[in-house]
Amino acid sequence: MKKVTAAIFGFLLFASTASAVESVKSETVKTSSEPVSAPAAPSLSSKQLKHLEDMRKLADEKKQELNGSEWKVKTGSSNPKAKGGEDVFTFQNNQIKSENLAKRGFIATNYTVTVEEGQDKGKETATFETMQTGPKGETIFIRGEWKDKSMQGTMNEQLEKDSISTWFTSLGREKIPPTSAAPKEEAESATPVPAPAPAVLTTTGKAEEKEKAVETFSGTTDTKRILRSK
């Protein structure tokens, strides 16, 4: 009798344990199948939003300040592969062009402007950045900081197995138009050319001016004079 009771108790314990395990598995599968929502982004206060908007406006103002300027810079590098010398940066049409890089086939590119926080108002130093690609796939990153008539920065050229870093510092700043004028040839071609007046052909086949008859009358006389212009 004790053996039967023990057997029944063991069977009930096994059944109870198996049921609990299946319940845990079911809950695990159910929980893992439910999509997990991403945490909500923290909301910004009106003061924080205004601060971000003010910084954006300041960056736009600095970009317009830089646009329409030409900088003569001195370049140098500790890398023997790089040649030091001088260059001219032109900021026009909201793009930057390097005179030296243009000779290698690089074209002007757009640039971004950022302003670091915590600076005295009206005395901020701004940063511009751009990336240019050459005709053979060369890539150069240009980054500079400027304030008033002073500028400095670096140019990093990515090579296949190496990179060359060149520094630059300003020698002078000149003001130029913010936008470039259209080439003279394009302006001339855009000007409409009036078509020549058609000639009147006589029976002899020669081009002559059309005769103009002018009738004049004097007093009460019926004298009519026809003036012909040749």
Verbal overview:
There is one protein chain. The chain has 4 helices and 13 strands. The protein is of the alpha+beta class. The chain has a domain at 47-175: Lipocalin (Beta Barrel). The chain has a 9-stranded antiparallel sheet. It has a two-stranded antiparallel sheet with strand order 10-11. Mean pLDDT is 76; it is low at 2-9, 28-32, 183-188 and 199-230.
Assembly state of the chains shown: single chain
Poorly predicted runs of 5 or more residues:
2-9, 28-32, 183-188, 199-230
* Mean pLDDT across all amino acids: 76
Tally of separate helices: 4
Tell me, what's the shape? Answer: globular
The termini sit apart by 149 Å
State the total count of DSSP E strands. Answer: 13
CATH top level of the domain at 47-175 is Mainly Beta
Q: DSSP strand (E) fraction? A: 25-35%
Structural class comes to: alpha+beta
Instruction: Give me the CATH fold name of the domain at 47-175.
Output: Lipocalin
SSE arrangement, N to C = HHEEEHEEEEEEHEEEE
Helix content: 25-40%
